Amino acid sequence: MLRFVSQRLFLIVIVLLTINFAVHWGMLMNQRGGDPENFPSAWEVASEALTQSRAFAGKALRGDLGTYETNFGELQVRDMLRQSFFASMGLLLLAAIISGLVGILLGIFVALTRFRAIPFTVLATTIVGISVPSFFAAMLLQQFIIFYFREYDRRLLSVAGFGWDYQHLVLPVLVLAARPIAYLMRTTYIVLQRTMQEDYIRTAYSKGLGRRYVVNVHALRNVAVPILTAVGVSWRFSLGILPVVEYMFAWHGLGLRMLQGIQSGQISMVVPLALVFGLTLLLGNLLLDVLYRLVDPRLREVP
Questions:
Q1: Which end of the chain is less crowded, N or C, counting CB atoms within 10 A of the terminal residue's CB?
Q2: Which residues contact 186 (CB under 8 A, 6 or more apart)?
Q3: The domain that contains 216 carries what CATH number?
Q4: Would you place residue 251 in the very low, low, confident or very high pLDDT band (cuts 50, 70, 90)?
């Protein structure tokens, strides 16, 4: 296990260095490409990006992430990252907990129910949930809250703004959790239904074992790996749509800060944010890989 983790950590470092260079290159191409008559060579910009990315990596190793420009002057990127990271992780973790509990539990219920109409209805609903774009869902929720306020002169929730109270949290967490709930419910239902039709499940029933024991001991253990994979995909869903959600709800997290940095062309702001996004995704994947090997001993032999 230690060797496996060491290899993954080495790959994470390589990926972060690649992100560092790629973001510098992309931001410089965007800055230098404003004049069509003097459009720069991609290789010239790549050389400059390599120099800047090496300088940034050297400073970052010494704890200096630089500064960025605001209307109030220059501020430390380190302070901005700390505040934005906790703001974004709060949303992501709440959405992950809610989507995991709701999606997996509903998937188990649908797979084990004896009412035939429920699975078809749930599958149709999950297709809609996965297909609806996040920005569209956010806009619909905001319009509903505004309509309710106009009709009844009562505010249910805040349509935008930052705050750790339920009025500011419900809408962004709901949008972040919608697609993961639908995906986890669908995946759990499919894998558990197939597992319940396997021969060893029928053998367990023929031995007189109760339904609860068969499901908890035999079935759920064998679907743990596919469900963990679905959790990982759901985490990537949420992380990928985080900038859109934060922009729609004016939530001062990593995603909104990155969009603001790209719009203002501040490389010193965008590069650290992109690295934090990449590191969060890579560490999440590493955690899942470790959990795979803890759940399924056969995977421990895989290099």
A1: C
A2: 107, 122, 123, 126, 127, 130
A3: 1.10.3720.10
A4: very high
